[in-house]
Amino acid sequence: MVNSPIYPHELTGRTIRLLTVEPGDPGTPLHCNLTETYLDTTPSSYYALSYCWDANRSPVQIICNSHPLLVTPNLHSVLLEYRRRATRIPLWVDAICIDQSNITERTSQVRMMDQIYSEAECVVVWLGEAEAPDEMALWVLKELHLPWADSTDMPVMETGERALVLDEYYATHVPQAYWNALAAFLLRPWFSRIWVVQELLLARQVSIWCGSRTIDDFPVLETAARLSQMISCIRMLHAGVKAMAWKDEDAQQAAEKKLGNAHVLFMIKYIRERAMGGTLSLFAMTRWFDATDRRDKIFALVSLTSDIDRSFVDYSRSYEEVIKELNLMFLDGRIGSMGCVLDIWSFITRAEEEDITQPSWVVDLLKVLESKYTAMMTAYATYEKSMIERTPELQFVERDGKEVIDIRGTVFDTITHVIRFPTVRDAVGATQLSFEAKNAHGYLDWIQRVTDLIAPSGDLTKPSYSSESSNIYQCGGYIFDAFWRTLCCNRQAVEPIEPPADFLSYDAFIELLRLVRWRYEIRFKKWLYLGIAMAPYSALVYRLRRNKLLLPATLLALPTIVRVCHRAWESFWYGMRVYYEAQQKDFQIMHLQWTMGRQFGLTRLGMIGMLPISAKVGDSVGFFAGNRVPFVLRKSEGGYKIVGDAYLHGVMNGEGEKSEGEMLTIV
Fold first, then answer.
1. How do residues 573-632 score in pLDDT, each as one tens digit?
2. Of 195, 288, 503, 638, which has fewest CB within 10 angstroms of its CB?
3. What gap in Å lies between CA 341 and CA 345, rounded to an integer?
4. Which residues of 225-256 are buried (b: 16+ CB within 10 A; e: fewer)?
5. What are phi and psi of 463, to 5 degrees?
6. CA atoms within 13 A on the CB side of 633
7. Where is 542: in which H helix or E strand?
8. Percent of the chain clearing pLDDT 90 (strictly above)
9. Taking a C-beta distance cutoff of 8 angstroms, is the pair 141, 182 a contact?
10. Mean pLDDT over residues 425-429, rounded?
11. Contact criterion met (CB below 8 Å) for 22 and 84
12. Tens of pLDDT along 345-398?
């Protein structure tokens, strides 16, 4: 509060407060003092703290400037550790150094946070108090990093046989307890706090504290990035998540997705160092990070962009005002895009039965950030920009008391069928499949349903390149190619992963599903073959029936023979599964990247594609001038509402540029 004993006056300009922790014996109350300094004229040696507030637990009292002050338990813990280490360098801590009750001061100080962290001598990362399983977690991180210790390649690009062998080795030889420990470690709240993105990226030097231990020598983020591509190891991690106590299934699924946040931190750092990506992709990548104040999901990233001024950070505005202004900045070009100002509309996400009540052209970024929906326009292949020659024509107008957008476009098709994708996904996220018998059955049955709809005389599980009209796709080429390419959207995703070059990984995906589905049949055959193999054994027992010495020995050998045969068969089956899992990986990753929040669809013109989960039969499909992908539109009073972007095979390469179109009203 302004004019309080701790905050006697409001900070102005580039003035900041720094905290000094006074020495004290263990168990004694914490005493600290606040002093003011100027970032411009008096360069000070100070540390900046990167931590989680932990506001859900009861606060703890400390003494600041000789007056009591309540802080969160997590902050109290790190200040105790700071005192224990006898660190006399002043510390900048947002919760104490900013008068949080003063909106004006809070706004001005948050606008300066990028400078505060970039000018600090060191950023101290506080992961929390040490816990018993930490040693196991750090051991796993170190072991996973060793094979690539001298590697210079990008972690997420390490694929192929080497990664596969290491993946299977670690998943097989590292006990589950160690994976449980690593899962708990990566789910520490610090890895999911939105503010740590800028705190980490802007730091000159970082020191990571976990209780009394400093773990600067552990490549946590880089190893997490490599781990994100090791499917078997990820399964072990997710088993660790399931072993924890969760209040409900939603909380467990959220935790499973947050496992990847350490990987995301590395990716953002990597992309930023190479001047890649953009503002929109930054918002998308941080979707599973947390903030106490929902506006901070936006404000925390402002300093990392080059096209949003710090003045955008304003805590006097509501979230709805902030998000609407941000949308206008994208659409009028104040915020740059990788290709088109309409790129932001590709981030529209709606629930299956959601009623579109708000202006459909306003993208609720919190909704985007809390989903795993992959937008069609987050990455551009090098050839795509050249295909888009026109500039979007849009006007912001007020009509009948509503803010609407008039935009040039073409409505060219109608949705006639929608088919939900089968459940083959683990709850673990976008790069993992659950290859269980019921899921394999369901997926193969789903393909048969789609075959009956779009290729009654064909088979979409294997190549079909005959010249019969039933095998030719509406936009040219073959239906088989159109189908498998549709399942992976045939596009570059958020991460630098290319779609499969040919159908071989899709073919391996189908073979893997068949292998899993036929497990029961294989088991039956296994015992059948074992019975046949036992015929010589039975003959031997018969011949030795009167030999009192050899007959008992022969009978005792039976369990061993059965076990050997069983293990040999299981080893063969497991080997086949590992082989197909490796071969189908490229297709699987892309398929799951794009199917989240989408469904399969067919249009009146015979085009197949990936449609938003909220799309319905009867919805229209159209292009906007200057934009490269089609959108699903729903007729509404006064115009159209945007349902979401779509992949329609055969019209993803700028075909909309050929149409003059008309002015459409988006409400």
1. 778 888 888 888 889 888 887 888 899 999 999 999 999 999 999 999 999 988 888 999
2. 638
3. 9
4. bbbbbbbbbbbbbbebbeeeeeeeeeebbbbb
5. -60, 140
6. 23
7. helix 519-543
8. 43
9. yes
10. 39
11. no
12. 988 888 777 777 778 999 887 776 555 667 777 555 544 454 567 788 999 999
What does the pLDDT look like over 93-120, one tens digit per residue? Answer: 999 999 999 999 999 999 999 999 999 9
Q: Of 298, 434, 305, 285, nearest to 374 (Cα)? A: 285
Quick one: which of 284, 443, 298 has its CA closest to 373? 284
Instruction: Tell which residue, 172, 201, 215, 203, has the closest CA to residue 47.
Output: 203
- The residue count of the chain comes to 667
Reduced to 3 states (helix: H, G, I; strand: E, B; else coil), residue 313 is coil
Q: What angle do CA 86, 88, 92 make, to 5 degrees?
A: 115
Whole-angstrom CA distances from 25 to 63, 83, 86, 621 are 15, 9, 11, 70
Report DSSP letters for 409-436, one per residue: EEEEEEEEEEEPPP--B-TT-TT-B---
Tokens encoding 280: 């929109």
What is the distance between the alpha carbons of residues 326 and 574, in angstroms, rounded to a whole number? 51
The Cα–Cα gap between 459 and 564 comes to 39
In 51-105, at which residue ranges do the beta strands (DSSP E only) sit? 60-64, 67-71, 91-92
pLDDT of 429 > 50? The answer is no
Distance CA 148, CA 155 (A): 9
The DSSP string of 96-155 is HHS-TT-HHHHHHHHHTHHHHHHHSSEEEEE--S--TTHHHHHHHHHHHHGGGTT--S-G
- H or E element in which residue 537 lies: helix 519-543
Which runs of consecutive H residues, i.e. helices, occur in 243-391? 249-258, 261-273, 279-285, 296-302, 319-331, 365-369
**pLDDT in the model for residue 257:** 82
15-21 sheet: strands from edge to edge: 67-71, 60-64, 31-38, 15-21, 91-92, 47-50, 122-126, 206-210, 213-214
Model pLDDT, residue 66? 94
Interatomic CA distance for residues 123 and 50, integer angstroms:
7
Distances (CA, A) of 568 to 3, 495, 526, 572: 79, 40, 10, 6
The CA angle 505-507-513, to the nearest 5 degrees, is: 105
**How, if at all, do strands 91-92 and 47-50 pair?**
parallel
Report how far residue 499's alpha carbon sits from residue 99's, in angstroms, rounded to the nearest whole number: 50
Secondary element (H or E) of residue 599: strand 598-603
Q: How far apart are CA 430 and CA 424, in angstroms?
A: 11
Residue 192 Cα distances to 180, 212, 287, 295, angstroms? 18, 22, 10, 16
Is 500 within 8 Å of 590 (Cβ atoms)? yes
What's the pLDDT tens digit per position in 491-523?
754 445 678 889 999 999 999 988 888 765 555
